[in-house]
Amino acid sequence: xxxxxxMEPTRIPSNGxxxxxxxxxxxxxxxxxxxxxxxxxxxxxxxxxxxGVYRTEEGKCHTLNVVKQVEQTLANDLSxxxxxxxxxxxxxxxxLSAKLMFGSGSPAIKESRVVTVQCVSGCLSLRVGAEFLAKxxxxxxxxxxxxxxxxxxxxxxxxxxxxxxxxxxxxxxxxLDFQGLLEDLGSALSGxxxxxxxxxxxxxxxxxxxxxxxxxxxxxxxxxLLPFFDCAYQGLVSGNLDDDxxxxxxxxxxxxxxxxxxxxxxxxxxxxxxxxxxxIVCKTADVARRVESQLKLIIRPLYSNPPIHGAAIVTAILKxxxxxxxxxxxxxxxRDRLVQVRRQLYDxxxxxxxxxDWSHFIKQVxxxxxxxxxxxxxxxxxxxxxxxxxxxxxxxxxxxxxKAVPYFADAIHDAVISSLPSSTLA
Amino acid sequence: MRPEFTLPSSSSSSSADRRxxxxxxxxxxxxxxxxxxxxFSPTSGFHGDSVFSHVVRAPEDPxxxxxxxxxxxxxxxxxxxxxGAYRTEEGKPLVLNVxxxxxxxxxNDKSxxxxxxxxxxxxxxxxLSAKLIFGADSPAIRENRVTxxxCLSGTGSLRVGAEFLARxxxxxxxxxxxxxxxNHPKVFTxxxxxxxxxxxxxxxxxxMNFQGLLEDLGSAPSGxxxxxxxxxxxxxxxxxxxxxxxxxxxxxxxxxLLPFFDSAYQGFASGNLDEDxxxxxxxxxxxxxxxxxxxxxxxxxxxxxxxxxxxVxxxxADVASKVESQLKLVIRPMFSNPPIHGASIVATIxxxxxxxxxxxxxxxxxxxxxxxxRKQLFDxxxxxxxxxDWSHIIKQIxxxxxxxxxxxxxxxxxxxxxxxxxxxxxxxxxGLSSKTVPHLADAIHAAVTRMx
Lengths: 426, 452
Prior knowledge:
The structure holds two protein chains of two kinds. Chain A is an alpha/beta fold. Helices cover 43% and strands 13% of the residues of chain A. Chain A contains 16 helices and 13 strands. In chain A, the strands form four sheets. A seven-stranded mixed β-sheet of chain A has the order 2-10-9-8-7-3-4, with helices on both faces. In chain A, helix 13 packs across helix 16. The longest helix of chain A is centred in the C-terminal third of the chain and has 32 residues. Chain A starts with 29 loop residues before the first helix and ends in an 8-residue tail after the last helix. Chain B contains 17 helices and 13 strands. The longest helix of chain B is centred in the last third of the chain and has 32 residues. In chain B, helix 9 runs parallel beside helix 10. Chain B is globular, with a radius of gyration of 26 Å. By secondary structure, chain B is α/β, with parallel strands linked by helices. A seven-stranded mixed β-sheet of chain B has the order 2-10-9-8-7-3-4, sandwiched between helices. Chain B has a two-stranded parallel sheet with strand order 1-12. Chain B has a two-stranded antiparallel ribbon with strand order 5-6. Chains A and B meet through helix 2, helix 5, helix 6, helix 7 and helix 8 of A and helix 1, helix 2, helix 4, helix 7 and helix 8 of B.
């Protein structure tokens, strides 16, 4: 084929503006802005307690050993190819993920009432689930807990659903506002969708107890509300995968229906591989099959089919007894470190006599803690101590090492003392 | 009181499940303590039908459904010419040597981590992808007028671009060629655009309906978006000549139509990466704006790793920054940030000149094998004296051939010869080998002579 010789291209009229001249510069998404500010900061003592990524005691990024082992095996397997996965992803991955969440004895799985599709991380699982509900469910209102993961409102409203909130966290008592939760769900629109964090609530670290979950379940079923779980921390909360799935299993085994978005970002450290799943538990196997066929119609024009690599890693680990054991050991070690740091932080603040009740640090669970600090105090921490966190006072416990705890405790102490009215200072 | 719901059988459950069973049984019989106690009573919603009972079974995707049907067929002579995935002469999927090499390098790099990428993906991948498609000396790149974001392969790039346009562009109609890739219409309509078509393929000549194309684009409302296949049109294999591209460019610029390129076969059409990017580069060279969705599925054999990029060429650098900031707001509520593995492989290959060369050699070998299959099929039909002009098989470009067979003939070939293709008569040349060409030629011959 001949090349066209370079010629004077017909110029666009020189007064032609860009077609996108009037677009505004969107502000940076808050959590990324925080990271950018942290990266720019030259202070050697700086701490990044913003983004929800687990770090080691040395403050380093953490790839699980069992993941490294599996990747080596995968790379050496010359029989593996890179062909398109089915629209719904790797079948074995889907089966094993459903088992992990609902339990191997789950009647819903046994009765083929669960449809599970591999999605591109927890985010896209939420989005695909929301798009499915927007298309096929009669109620387009979703109740989100107040507060919730910063991206939830975006993901759900992008699908065309309307957002409402239900009371969840009580900023005065720093625990679950259970009364408020029951009242709000009790008066929710009939059939509304309700988003629940399966465990390790983000950003507060406050979870309902088992008894409270049972009350929630009964209320949800009585009012015909549709539960939509976000499960991103299974194993990282109690250290036990089955325990952390209890809330889901209560709903999954009562014969009713629910939607579950699952992520392996944190509990397998697979963040950038974008691996997750969407499960819908249906009343009958026939409905489950039809639902699956409709999920494909949503996925195909979005990204066609999901990426192989992350799913191959997860599948290899979940299906091999030894690798699975290795994984649970590493998972428990990660979780134990989180618990230990919480304890250490609490003890430090008590020893310092920092005014206030800091027991929420050890009562809260999972990767995050809602410190209870207000925006001014958060700004103070950043300005004076180069500590970066969400402006709502959330910290990532996973980003804190025991070496950094004293510095952090000093900072909190200073922030609290500095913001006390001067008459209360001894 | 018997619990109202079934519990996991204790024989197979974990200790946690058994504790749960005990708790539930206890709660079912105990009275509620809280003031807002909820009476444990069945509700119509809970014991009624599924809330999804009205959901109808969706039909199988027409393209992917071909493979499903093929897999079910027990015949030893079956041929899958459905999905556009490259096969070797032995009929096997191919992972490029240079890709395996890149994967090993990545594995051995102890500094690599799996943390979240930025929303727009790997910076190096984006830069190199822009260079690949626009050319290393592209003025648009030099002038920082291009924003490139990593997306989930070609489909994902098209969808993100379409969602951006639906939000920010004044014209919400996109013109797509008739015919086009089966998934295109849905990608655009679900993003919020409305879809119209422009004439493209002439079934009587099995070539371009250039007059029709010019007329339809000429009468499109000013500012409309126009989808263009950069090279190796899917499904027809019919591409404009360079002169025709120049005419299209002039017409589109005079009507301020916005080009949205789908580039899924760069290097696969002619065997030369720069040649296959000519159409795009013409539009960039004239200083105007365009969108480009780029896929590495075929040309790097990275199908299932979902690697692609969306580039937006703008008139000014500050516009490009603003566009990028708004693209992030499309991506964040979709997949938040893209997958690391496939893009890392691409970046590793593109940035190393030796690996880049190795890649171009393997790519050319794939393209050459396809061209050879075209020749073989053409010769085989000629040898059989199959009625009709089959020269389109060697004139058409890229992975696919629009055979010109009608749906009855296609059904016949599947039924009698176990050959699978999409019902529009499109076959993937990449699925053929020298061994299987005779079988296909026999089938076409039979279909043409026995079914009209």
